[in-house]
Amino acid sequence: MAERLGMKAELYASGFDEGTNGVRPLEALFDDVRRDDVVLLSYSIFDPHLERILALDCKKICYFHGVTDPQLLRALEPRTAQLCDKALAQLPLLAGFDALVANSRGTAQSLAGIVDVDADAITIVPPVFPDMYVFRRETPRKGRKRQEPNLLMVGRVVPHKRVEDGIEILALLKQRDFNATLSIVGSTPNYDYLKFLINHARRLGVLERVDFKGMLDDADLFECYESTSGLLAMSRHEGFCVPVLEAMHYGKPVFVRGGTAAQEICPRDCVFDANAELAAWVPVVMQRLGQSVGRSPIDLAYVRHADGVLQRSSDDVWRTLFTGVGVVMNGPSRARASAPAASVEKRR
Length: 348
Description:
The chain has 348 residues and is of the alpha/beta class. It has helices spanning 26-32, 50-54, 78-90, 105-115, 133-136, 163-175, 191-203, 218-227, 242-249, 281-289, 300-310, 315-324, and strands at residues 8-13, 23-25, 38-43, 59-64, 99-102, 123-124, 145-146, 150-154, 181-185, 210-214, 230-233, 254-257, 271-272, 294-295, 334-339. The protein folds into 2 domains: 8-130 and 314-342, Rossmann fold; 133-309, Rossmann fold, CATH 3.40.50. The strands form 3 sheets. The protein has a 7-stranded parallel sheet with strand order 2-1-15-3-4-5-6, with helices on both faces. Strands 10-9-8-11-12-13 form a 6-stranded parallel sheet, with helices on both faces. β8 (150-154), α6 and β9 (181-185) form a beta-alpha-beta unit.
């Protein structure tokens, strides 16, 4: 995006795979930065380099993805919970940036109360781009064939995603003689949580209907979207929830737990009350999916809704943001993007 706007761009990160093309060690950032540069920091968890970045003599923009509530992590991911605790204590420092950007209204509001900045002063830009490959692919005219309705969950398999609730919905559907399957796509970094999920599915009698697919490449992930009947988003914390947008782009129904930013990007009738009993989800899922077999339908209303969300992250939005902090477009400025390893959420 920066290059399309006429800027030279450099990427910096910590703890990344050294074979990653085009990414430089974060330490090099502090030697490379010039006064007419703009640094864009991606922030979602404690960053030990934050004060050094704030001390740089250049324009600085913080893209804030939200910090997961430590209480959602403390039982099974105590180390991550500690880092989130430290991040919450560190957030007031973000007021030192020349501009603050958030990935959703909910994230902006959570930050505004901490850094003493009006939420309206925080620019909201979805963490996607319309030219990403998944969104440039032509929407299939027909879904792929399946023998039974399928529900899909996409994201890291970690406690606050509440994958167990998706498994329980599958079991409740089975009790209603609605035979469906559940596909779970995403990395499984927490062995104890994965073991709990497997045992949970076994206790509920649906283990043979649950497919833990793990990390997938793009082609296999796209096939999951094409063949699924609908996406479940059960998480208790989401700064945005890209899988909801991807599923709608494929014309698929989404079933979203309210109380997170995921509810901002889908139609209202797709959102369930955050505290609703899981049994309340079942008749809605059954009605929208039906008991049909064969090809899952493509609903163009979801495709159009996804397209509307994508337009909020166009290059023109970023151009306005850069010029707003005094960056001279098509001038000598370089965009230097920085992200600590812990802030990158990989799901494929």
